[in-house]
Each structure stands twice: as structure tokens, then as C-alpha cells.
Amino acid sequence: MSQPQFKLNESVQQFLQYSDDVWKKLQEFYFGDNPVSQAVAKLNAEDLSKFYEALASNPMRLMELQLKWWQGQMDIYKNIMLRSMGEEVAPVVDDLPGDRRFSNEAWKTDPNFDLLRQSYLLLTRNVQEMIDVVEGIPDSVRQRLHFYTRQMINAMSPGNFLWTNPEVLQQTKEENGENLRRGALLFRDDLVKSGQYLKIRMMKDKAFEVGKDLAYTEGKVVFQNEVFELLQYTPKGAEVFKTPLLIVPPFINKYYILDLKEKNSMVNWMLEQGHAVFLMSWRNPMKEQSHITFGDLITDGVMEAAKVVEDITGEKEVNAIGYCMGGTLLAATQAYYVGKRLKNRIKSATYMTTILDFEDPGELGVFINEPVISAIEALEEKVGYCDGRQLAVTFSLLRENSLYWNYYIENYLKGKEPGEFDILYWNGDGTNVTAPVHGFILRNLYLNNELVEDGKIKINGTGLYLSRVKTPNFFISTKEDHIALWDGTFKGSTALGGESTLVLGESGHVAGIVNPPAKDKYGYYTNTAAFKDADQWLEKAKHHKGSWWTYWQKWVTPYAGEKVPAYPIGSANHKPLGDAPGEYVKVTLV
User: I need a surface site. Which of 258, 443, 458, 548 has the fewest CB within 10 A?
Assistant: First the structure.
């Protein structure tokens, strides 16, 4: 192998020193001395013990798997030898579909790197297959084994290391190690800005300014309390639809995913359609807000916002949109209205990638168990909140190759600072969640799945009955969503008592929602049949080109009412407090 030669100059030595810190940070994620890491490690040990017991009970199957791996490895050696002699033969193991880790041609043209690549992929395939075929372990154990072994194997990918990445070796030779020096500096900055776990930047530092480049749409803050600020946006014309539009974004993220740049701002587009748009901007809580509960998000949050909108517009009802966990909160608020025998202020409800039935949480399920949740509660009780930076790392590790290790290689090995991409900037601009709210989400929603059990959850003594919520609803989910699985979100719609319209967008949790008509990038599916299961629904669904936004506009128009003169900004009781985007959204975690 013609491997580039270079001396361990100061730049390389500095990088190697910092790279040790990278691995220490990652080890803390799984093996640290905090209660959560200890709970995860203990659970992993128990799962592995069950796995080994199951393997031991069938030694012939174990021998079969070992022989299969050994034969595969011998085939790879033979393959590499034939190719080095000039014969054109296909590789024994090829890259997985969509896997771009080994896209550099040196991984296939250099025999030694090709051997390394194929051997690594063979091991990956065999380990995952072994977990699949072994009998006698519960599905929950199998799921955790898959997740954590995948994390370990992908962390050990040869592309993640200087000495086994041909592209990085060549670059290091050409730049005499300057790429590693730059990478070391980027790592140092990231380490300072991280929480307990290393949060690798996905965006160029200070690429955007909230309120100038993002969250730019003109409006005013018309209300503020300890929980949220209410933004009222300046109308685009002299008239608006009579029924105001209230947007309830997720409280685990910042709202401006719906108001990025002009070309992909959903808020701006809704204003152009003639809606009178109000939006809740949640406070980024610190220890001083540690007393705030999920019930407070209902009573002092969504319900309070509806009151302010009524005071400004005179309208007792709103068309509401809830995104992700904001949709879960919106449904719970309506159930609270009904339970308290109050008028439900929600005329129509739109749920964007919203989970109501948490029976199948997807890969997040590896963290949904009693030992881990109890450890999280114990840790957060001391500080008062869940650190948004740690939450961001957790979500990134659900797609570790594309959302974690890819940036590790580009930033730290190649020394390239990321570019400027608005969605990734938003993704890195995290928010905390108070300990009571996070505990409620983990235990009452994910672990016990209580929201779909009528009366099981009580807010201020009032039971929540989703089945009594008769509001017409629109569910937009996305086909490749790994956070809110689309079949699970559609299943949750059956818990509501109102008529449901189901739409399935292409792409994932964010890109499938932020899909403006001007870009026309992703299509969507519709099916008016009642949802029974995913295969049945999708098989008979009709595919449409273009953005689901226009389909939603047709759906919501009958609930929007006639056109009336545009509402004034604020009122005598709620005078404007300042310009949008307000102050809460500007609070950062570093």
C-alpha cells in the first residue's frame, strides 16, 4: 500500500492529543459516572448476558455463524488478491445503500484499504445478523442490542481514524498536518460549548443571527409570561381570514423552524395566503423555571394564548397548528377544555409529525425503560432541567453516521468548518426542558402511553379524554421520520373523536414539513380511508407532486371563515412589547 509518509509535526501531535479527549467524551456518554450512563451500562450488561445465554443454548447456531463469518473473510482475501492481479471481480461485500462513508475511490482502488473496508462491512453485517437470528430473547432486548452494537461498530469505522482513512492521510500529507491543527481548534471550541456529552457543530459558528437572517418575519410580541411569548405577525394585505391561526411549536425546539428564510418560511407563506397568524415562542427554561409542569404548558401556555388572541381579534375560536410535541400539547389542551366543561377554543387542529399513541417510539425506545428513566429523573431533579445540548446529541446518535461521525471526520480530521445551512443552524440552537415536563414526557407518555387511555392522565385533577375531542383534525406525517414514525402518528389520530384527514409527506421529520411550494422538492400521499395499518393505508394512497402546504390550505379554508379587515396589532389590554422574534427565542445554551 502506497501510504502517504509524514512526520509527527506539531500539528499532528496536537490533533492526537485532542482526539484522546474526543473518545473520552464519547465514553462518558455510555460509561460515565452519572446516573444515566450507569443505568445504560448496567442495562447493556444485562442484555448482553441474556444474549450470550441464548447463544450458549444453541452452540450449533453459534458455530454456523462463526463459520459464515470466517468463510466471508476468506472470500474477501481471495477477492483482494485477484483484483490486485488485475482481474475484474466484484467485491464480496459492498457499501450499504445510502452509505457514503467509503465514497472516496481509494477505499476501492487501494487493495489494503479495500480489504479494510470489506472486512469492516462484513463484521458489521454478521454482528447485526447474529442479533437477528438468535432465539430466546425479548424484542426490547433485541432492539437495544441492535442500537448499542451499531453505535459501537459505527464509532469504530476505519474512516473515523487518521491512520485508516486514505483521504485524510493524503490531505494530511499535502497540508503537512495543518488540517489536523484546524480540526483540533474546532474540537477545543466544541468541547467548551458542549454539555456532558460532546456536541459536534453542524454549522459554521455564528453563520446566522436570529431576528435578522432567521425568524425574520415582521411582527410584534403582544404577550409574555413565565412560560411563553406570543407573537402576532403583520398581515400581508388589507384583509385576513376571520378565524385567526395559532401555531403551537414544540417546546423542545425553537419555533423558527417554521420561520427560516423568506423562501422557506411557513409563517410567511401562511400570511401570504391571508391568515392572521399568531405564534407561541416558548421560554428556554433554566433552573429558575424548574417548577413548570406539563399542566402549566396547557393552562399558562396554549389556553392563555387563545385568550390573548380572542382579546385582540374578538374571535373565540382559532385554527390551531401543533408541530411534534407541540401537537401532543395541543391535543391535551383540547382534552382539558372538554374535561373542565369549557368551550373548546380550537375550531380545527392540524398535527404535524405528532405522536399521541406512544406504543411504538421507534429507536427512541432504547431509552424508554424504567431504569434509564429513573436515572434521568434523579439527575435532572438536581439541576432542574434537561440540558438541551445533551438532548441534541441523543437525537444525532439516532442517525450517527450522517449526523455525528460525518461531522467528526469533516470538522476534526479534515479541518473544515461546516457551511451555512439554516435548518442545521436551527438544529444546533437547542432548548432546555424543565425536569417535570421531561419526566412527564418520558414516563407518562413514552413509557406508560397514558395519553390514549381515557382519564389516565389528570391535569389539576381533571382527566384527559382524547376520545371526547370532536375537533376536525389534519395529520401531516412524513415517510422517513425516525423520531415520530408515521404509522404511529396516524394510529394516534384514531384516539381522537373528530374527523381525521391523513396526509403523508415525503422525506423526514423536518425537511418533509418545511417543504414550500416554491421548491416543489417533495411530494405527498393522501387516502380518505380510515387508518387500520400502514401497509393498507399506503397501498391505496394517491401520490401527489408538490408541497402538502397547498393541500392543507384547501382543507383549512372552510374553517377559516370569510375575509375581514386585518386585525390591529395588539389591543388595549395587550399592547406590543417589542418586535418579533422577541427575547425568549434568543436565549442560547452557550
Answer: 458
pLDDT tens-digit map of 252-277: 999 999 999 888 999 999 999 999 99
CA distance 360 to 148: 18
Instruction: State the catalytic residue, choosing from 324, 331, 451, 504.
Output: 324
What's the mean pLDDT in 390-406? 86
Report, as an integer, the average pLDDT of 28-52. Answer: 79
Domain ranges of the chain: 219-356+453-585
245 grid coordinates = 391561526
Mean pLDDT of 544-573: 97
Rounded Cα–Cα distance for residues 566 and 237 (Å): 7
> 498-531 as b/e, with b when 16 or more CB fall inside 10 Å?
bebbbbbbbbbbbbbbbbbeeeeebbbbebeeeb
- How many C-beta neighbours within 10 Å does residue 535 have? 9
Active site residue 324: yes
Nearest to 435 by CA among 491, 373, 376, 386: 386
What is the rounded average pLDDT of the residues 550-563?
98
pTM of the full structure = 0.91
CA 210, 214, 218, 222 dihedral sign is: negative
| Rounded distance between C-alpha atoms, residue 172 and residue 175, angstroms | 5
Q: Which residue has the cell 432492539?
A: 143
Burial 359-390 (b: 16+ CB within 10 A, else e): eebebbbbbbbeebbbbbbebbeeebbbbbbb
E strand intervals along 334-391? 346-352, 385-386
Rounded Cα distance between 353 and 148, Å, is: 26
User: Contact, 432 vs 385, CB < 8 A?
Assistant: yes
